[in-house]
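Attaching the record inline, Q. Sequence:
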Amino acid sequence: MGKKRKRKYSFDKTKKRKPDFDKTRQNRDGFDKTKKRKPEFKKSGQKKQSFDKTKQKFSKPKKEDINPNICFIKGKVATKNLTPGFRVYSELIVKKGNDEYRLWDEKKSKLAAAIKKGITHWNIPVGNKVLYLGIADGTTASHISDMIGENGIIYGVEFALKPVQNLLCIIKMHKRDNIAPIYDDAKLPGNYASIVSKTDLIYQDVAQKDQVKILLKNAKLFLKKNGMIMLALKARSVDSTKNPRQVYDDALDELKKHFRILDWKILDPFEKDHCFIIATKL
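Structure, as predicted:
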C-alpha cells in the first residue's frame, strides 16, 4: 500500500481573518473586563459610622422610631446607656466614641421580643412619663429608662418584695434617678394616686387573670388623653383552659372599647403563649 497523501487545505486570502478577541476591549456594559471594578460607595456626605475597637454595624432608627437614644446594631435594637460603665443584667455593651449602647436581649424582655417580631409604634420619646405596672427587677424598664433620658420618669409598681429590693439596688448603684419604685398592688391604683402624676404611657406586665381590668383601672386614673398603652399579655395566666389565640382576641375586643389598637404581635418563640399589644387612648 502506498503512503497516505496529506489533505491540503486552501484558504481564501481575499477574506480578512477575524482578529482574536481583544481582552482589553470594553464589553457591552462599558466596563473593561481586565480591570477590577472599584467598589461602590455611598454618596458624598454619608460617613461610615463605626464603633471603637469593633466592627459592629451602626445604624440610626427608622423614621417612625426617631429617638437619639436608640440605634440598631446588626439587626438588634440598642439603647444609649444612661449610666455608662454599668450593666443592669448580662446585656452586651458596644461603644461608639464616648457613648455606650446596651443591646436589648429579646429573650429577656417582652418589648424587645415584640420589636424583634416587627411591631410598630414602640418608640417612647425622650422626656416621657411612664407608669410601669409589674416592673419586677427592672430589665425592660432599664432600657425604657435609657430611651426617656434624664428628663423622663418611670413610676414602677411592683407587689413582690424581692424584685423591689433588687431594683432599689440597681437604682442606687447605677444612679438611675429616673426610676421611682413603688411597692404596692397594681390592682389598687388609688394607693399610689398621690405619688403618680398623669403619664404619657402605661406599660403593663402583670401576669394576672384580670390583666386587662388592671390596665383599664390605671389608665382611667393616670393616662393622659391620647396616651399610649403597652400590654404584655400572658394567655395561660388569664385562662389556662382556653386556646391562647382566643384569649388574645377577647383582650383585644375589650381594649377596643377604650383604645385604638395600633399594632400587636404574638411573641412565640421568644415568649410562649404571650402577645404584646400597643394602643392609644380614645
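The radius of gyration is 30 Å. DSSP finds six helices and twelve strands in the chain.

More tomorrow.
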